[in-house]
Write a structure and sequence with these properties.
Elements lengths: L8 H23 L26 E6 L3 E7 L8 E5 L3 E16 L2 E16 L10 E5 L2 E7 L13
Antiparallel strand pairs: 1-2, 2-7, 3-4, 4-5, 6-7
């Protein structure tokens, strides 16, 4: 006769607790940049080290027949502090602003520093003409208009 141990309530309970703990540790690794980022297909480690302290700008992307339009919210940033790089398939926006105030009193000197930084890479839905890109900045909203690079259409040739 073969004795088989029947799985009890506590066996299933502890297996489920162990599975939940592994899941939580996996999510923690993802959050702190040690693993896969769901929905983005990238790892946090792929972002350049120098830009990890930047905030991600709120972004909208839409396209029409002729162009791709990207808007980003960059509150409190001056127009001069925005740097834009464009490739045929990506848009990279970096905005940083450093402020320093100094107040001298009888008891000493008080110095305050504030730092605002935004960084975002946008994967464009289609190829664009990089030499015809136009950007405007008004009231904390950056709008970048990227004309589409229309590929040559197929031409049918008759055989004679």
């Amino acid at each position: 006769m073969v004795w088989r141990r029947r799985r009890g309530f506590f066996d299933e309970f502890f297996e489920e607790m162990e599975r939940m703990l592994e899941d939580m540790l996996g999510r923690e690794r993802d959050f702190f940049g040690l693993g896969y980022v769901p929905g983005k297909g990238r790892r946090y480690g792929d972002v350049r080290e120098e830009f990890r302290e930047y905030r991600e700008a709120l972004t909208d992307v839409w396209e029409s027949d002729d162009e791709v339009v990207v808007t980003m919210e960059l509150p409190g940033v001056k127009k001069e502090d925005i740097k834009i790089n464009v490739t045929p398939r990506t848009l990279e926006v970096k905005a940083e602003q450093k402020e320093e105030s100094k107040e001298e009193t009888e008891g000493g000197v008080r110095i305050e520093r504030a730092y605002k930084g935004f960084y975002k890479i946008v994967d464009l839905p289609t190829e664009v003409k990089t030499d015809e890109v136009k950007a405007t900045y008004n009231n904390g909203v950056l709008e970048v208009r990227l004309p589409k690079a229309h590929k040559e259409k197929k031409k049918e040739i008759k055989v004679e």
